[in-house]
């Protein structure tokens, strides 16, 4: 086997020789460092295949290919173009137009190199053998026309070999994953391989070999595209390579890539068209999942970017509103106004949390809880969400379903699902919540999680339902079927994000007119940790006398915290950045009972500042605060187990948390 390599780079030739010595010892490599010399060596050596670099000085690989294919002595030698641009379709199209047979991309993969060379050599030798056999037959006919018996014997032998080759071809066709097709443009005769029909769900004898068979299964919206691609190829303007939707036997449309190559007569009229059909439906689904992931990531980055500043602002507004409410007479008009301000900030805070939950960047406070108790706790609130004309039914498993969840976020999931169900039942109906135990063993097609035990919430309604297309897009951010002004398109995206953040799974089952059902699966908690029980809340935070070092770079938040702590008896020392925290603690270490510190600050962040403080006093207590997203905090070195309270935080919550950390 002789291989001719044409490349102006001597190092590339040495590398190729080393690869062939290892992986194709039977091959003899002939090298040339210019296109002109390479064409000369091709004429002299008659190699079995040519490896031709595209980028060369003087004459490039495209022109060399065109000349080699234009020479009758070298036109049958397979040419493999070597390109440095793996994803450049225009370069491959140009190479095909010049006559190239295959392509390799740098850096060259040895397995692909060997496979390409062997495939090209097999094709060449087969074509050479066929040409030789044809020449021999013609010579035999011309010289031995009188020897009819001998000619008949030779013809019989050739027919036997042809039958054997056809059987081999038939086996190859049956073994390929692609469906093959052939169309005689002149006579209209058409052939579809058994695999072609199998891809559409049919047996070989269930579809006729007619052009109309293809068009009858083509999606109506793709007819113009198919016709345009076909006409462009038959006119010699473009390769035939197009993706179209064909109807499967079961009724759904699958996406196929259709490739073909025409043959033309001496006058340039198309006479034949053959090609292959490949199922690319799964690839399209993966691309859609990638686009979905990119959408969610983009919105997540947006949500995370505004979280810090927005949470600082909400902390200040909510803090002063609550301080006013505590100082004002309980029944005056002013206290009601302060309550409205506080209520508005709570709604704004929930919106921020929802966006961060959707993006899976909201810090969680997971607790081991009974899933049934969480549903019961939110049941009264759901009645107000769905309205009086919708009946709420609950069917809760009597056995405990321990799971690690953030109860506030799971309540948000149920509220969002209830709001969607309410909108789907405009004339009233029934909204049902059920809990159960699910043993995943691979038998449920709609469940995509690993095998194991799961606690499941099934939320269903008997509303108008959704079609398949809407069900597929229901969790996309900003996708909504509601009228303008009646939906943000984020409710179900937030549900999806919260479930994912809990390492859970959600599936939807819906049909138009038959209602909708959502199944949410959470991994069952198998550990020995006891169930969390909500402690009794004091009506009024306790007073304190300790000294607290407060470090906060936002002056509005810093002033608010100073006022709240001072009001409840604490002595406060203030710092504006991480370095000041260390300096203030060094000066007052014997007096300071707690450091209340923002994580992200100028000069030194809270993690770095506390690390220095621990060197001075290992027993120092710290309570971190932050309005940033959890992934941003973790990137700054936040360790598990430290005390953290997330902004926006109400004064009462802050005071209770401060007291809790001080008393440990």
TrEMBL record:
Occurrences of domain Histidine kinase (ranges): 305-526
Keyword flag Isomerase: no
All residue ranges annotated as the Response regulatory domain in the record: 2-121, 547-662
Keywords: Coiled coil, Kinase, Phosphoprotein, Transferase
Coiled coil: 120-172
Catalytic function, reaction form: ATP + protein L-histidine = ADP + protein N-phospho-L-histidine
Signal sequence residues: none
Entry GO MF terms: kinase activity
Name this polypeptide is given: histidine kinase
PANTHER family: HYBRID SIGNAL TRANSDUCTION HISTIDINE KINASE C (PTHR43547:SF2), TWO-COMPONENT HISTIDINE KINASE (PTHR43547)
Record lineage: Bacteria, Pseudomonadati, Thermodesulfobacteriota, Desulfuromonadia, Geobacterales
One Pfam family from the record: Response_reg
Domain (PAC): residue spans on this chain: 240-292
InterPro entries xref list: CheY-like_superfamily (IPR011006), HATPase_C_sf (IPR036890), HATPase_dom (IPR003594), His_kinase_dom (IPR005467), HisK_dim/P_dom (IPR003661), HisK_dim/P_sf (IPR036097), PAS (IPR000014), PAS-assoc_C (IPR000700)
Modified residues (4-aspartylphosphate): 53, 598
EC number: 2.7.13.3
Domain PAS: 165-237
Gene3D superfamilies documented for this protein: 1.10.287.130, 3.40.50.2300, Histidine kinase-like ATPase, C-terminal domain, PAS domain
């Amino acid at each position: 086997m002789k291989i001719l390599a044409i490349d102006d780079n001597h190092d590339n030739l040495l590398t190729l020789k080393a690869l062939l010595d290892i992986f194709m010892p039977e091959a003899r490599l002939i090298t040339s460092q210019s296109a002109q010399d390479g064409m000369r060596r091709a004429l002299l050596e008659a190699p079995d295949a040519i490896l031709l670099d595209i980028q060369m000085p003087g004459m490039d690989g495209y022109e060399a290919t065109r000349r080699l294919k234009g020479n009758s002595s070298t036109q049958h030698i397979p040419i493999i173009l070597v390109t440095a641009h793996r994803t450049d379709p225009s370069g491959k199209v140009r190479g095909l137009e010049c006559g190239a047979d295959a392509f390799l991309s740098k850096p060259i993969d040895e397995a692909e190199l060997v496979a390409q060379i062997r495939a090209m050599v097999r094709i060449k030798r087969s074509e050479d053998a066929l040409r030789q056999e044809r020449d021999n037959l013609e010579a035999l006919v011309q010289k031995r026309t009188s020897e009819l018996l001998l000619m008949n014997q030779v013809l019989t032998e050739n027919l036997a070999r042809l039958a054997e080759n056809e059987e081999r071809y038939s086996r190859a066709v049956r073994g390929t994953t692609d469906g093959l097709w052939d169309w005689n443009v002149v006579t209209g005769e058409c052939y579809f391989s058994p695999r072609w029909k199998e891809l559409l769900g049919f047996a070989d004898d269930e579809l006729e070999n007619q052009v109309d068979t293809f068009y009858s299964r083509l999606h109506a919206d793709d007819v113009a595209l198919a016709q345009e691609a076909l006409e462009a190829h038959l006119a010699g303007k473009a390769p035939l390579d197009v993706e179209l939707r064909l109807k499967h036997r079961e009724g759904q449309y699958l996406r196929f890539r259709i490739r073909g190559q025409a043959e033309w007569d001496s006058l340039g009229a198309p006479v034949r068209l053959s090609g292959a059909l490949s199922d690319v439906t799964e690839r399209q689904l993966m691309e859609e999942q990638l686009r979905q992931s990119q959408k969610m990531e983009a919105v997540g980055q947006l949500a995370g970017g505004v979280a810090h500043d927005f949470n600082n602002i909400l902390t200040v507004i909510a803090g002063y509103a609550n301080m006013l409410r505590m100082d004002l007479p309980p029944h005056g008009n002013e206290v009601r106004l302060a309550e409205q301000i506080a209520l508005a900030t709570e709604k704004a805070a929930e919106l921020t949390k929802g966006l961060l939950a959707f993006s899976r960047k909201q810090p969680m406070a997971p607790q081991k809880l009974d899933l049934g108790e969480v549903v019961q706790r939110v049941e009264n609130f759901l009645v107000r969400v769905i309205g009086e004309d919708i009946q709420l039914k609950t069917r809760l498993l009597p056995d405990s379903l321990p799971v690690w969840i953030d109860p506030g976020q799971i309540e948000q999931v149920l509220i969002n699902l209830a709001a969607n169900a309410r909108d789907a039942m405009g004339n009233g109906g029934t909204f049902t919540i059920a809990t159960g135990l699910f043993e995943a063993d691979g038998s449920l097609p709609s469940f995509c999680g690993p095998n194991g035990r799961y606690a499941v919430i099934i939320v269903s309604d008997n509303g108008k339902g959704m079609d398949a297309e809407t069900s597929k897009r229901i969790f996309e951010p900003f996708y909504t079927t509601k009228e303008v002004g009646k939906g943000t398109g984020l409710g179900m995206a937030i549900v999806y994000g919260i479930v994912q953040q809990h390492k859970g799974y959600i599936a939807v089952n819906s049909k138009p007119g038959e209602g909708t059902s959502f199944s949410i699966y959470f991994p069952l908690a198998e550990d020995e940790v006891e169930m969390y029980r909500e402690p009794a809340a004091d009506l009024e935070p306790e007073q304190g006398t300790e000294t607290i070092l407060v470090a906060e770079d936002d002056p509005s938040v810093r002033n608010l915290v100073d006022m709240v702590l001072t009001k409840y008896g604490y002595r406060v020392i203030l710092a504006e950045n991480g370095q000041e925290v260390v300096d203030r603690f060094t000066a007052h270490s014997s007096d300071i009972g707690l450091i209340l510190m923002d994580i992200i600050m100028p000069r030194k962040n809270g993690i770095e500042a506390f690390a220095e403080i621990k060197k001075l006093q290992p027993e120092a207590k710290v309570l971190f605060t932050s309005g940033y997203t959890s992934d941003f905090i973790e990137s700054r070195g936040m360790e598990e187990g430290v005390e953290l309270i997330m902004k926006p935080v109400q004064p009462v919550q802050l005071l209770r948390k401060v007291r809790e950390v001080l008393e440990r």
